[in-house]
Amino acid sequence: xxxxxxxxxxxxxxxxxxxxxxxxxxxxxxxxxxxxxxxxxxxxxxxxxxxxxxxxxxxxxxxxxxxxxxxxxxxxxxxxxxxxxxxxxxxxxxxxxxxxxxxxxxxxxxxxxxxxxxxxxxxxxxxxxxxxxxxxxxxxxxxxxxxxxxxxxxxxxxxxxxxxxxxxxxxxxxxxxxxxxxxxxxxxxxxxxxxxxxxxxxxxxxxxxxxxxxxxxxxxxxxxxxxxxxxxxxxxxxxxxxxxxxxxxxxxxxxxxxxxxxxxxxxxxxxxxxxxxxxxxxxxxxxxxxxxxxxxxxxxxxxxxxxxxxxxxxxxxxxxxxxxxxxxxxxxxxxxxxxxxxxxxxxxxxxxxxxxxxxxxxxxxx
Length: 366
Description:
With 366 residues, the protein is of the alpha/beta class. It has 2 domains: 13-326, Thiamin diphosphate (ThDP)-binding fold, Pyr/PP domains (Rossmann fold), CATH 3.40.50.970; 332-365. The protein is 44% helix and 10% strand. The strands form 2 sheets. The protein has a 6-stranded parallel beta sheet, sandwiched between helices. The protein has a two-stranded antiparallel ribbon with strand order 5-6. Helix 6 links the parallel strand 3 and strand 4. Helix 1 packs antiparallel against helix 10 (285-295) and helix 5 packs parallel to helix 6. The chain is globular, with a radius of gyration of 22 Å.
């Protein structure tokens, strides 16, 4: 039999609506009501200002290590805003603005970053999973939720977030393959911020795009300017509509940049240049969106300043509340409970040693 070619004709679209200067393509501009646009801006600004305050708290020793989101607000907020409250959100660990949009209190974030398990409790009325630190594992969790929704015949869709580093994990490929096979109502949102900690995107894959990996699994895929909140929201809204209509999953690659460190335990100056960071700072998603809103007469400098002051006040209240809660929360010995029915000997010894150390510290304070 002769060797014959198999034609692969699929292509991947790239979508951008706002350029780096905030100018809009009128042919692609979505019809979004002013109140919705202003809400998007409010949560973008909240995400940015809260990030700055968390960094200050970490440097002061008032919270532990955390992953900043500065520069990536549009990539996850624009996507999650396409969901209904009845849909599911499955985050990784750099989606703070999206979590706040979905109703997570700032106090919860502060508690979690201080090591309190109470900070990871999700309110019963929220269809959100807690943040996932193991890279890529949440892809399978999202698939399970979507498969269950399809099996039950609900109209729920699931949105799962992860970074470019997760696309090098087996969980990512297994999840996309099964989602395609079962046409599960799930949207996979890759925040491609160019760096998997210190590994650049070019060292992770030979693919020209991450979005094109959707082709191999027979699902829809699109690459968007992840610093353009209008483009992200448009792509996400289209993907949600397809999923809700029974047309299966979508992979969205949001091309963005991590302006800050991977976590506050990381020094990005060791592996990337200041010139690279400056280039992406000129593409700041918040600045770009504010220019757009001003061009539409929805925002001015005075309103922006008032909003900044209002949000800073809300953040201060959340910090005060969280620090007050931390005075009453948490017995460190709880870490030994609720895992084993019978505590192993080595953990029993550790629990005893910690109890003695705590007693000595309390005695010294008194």
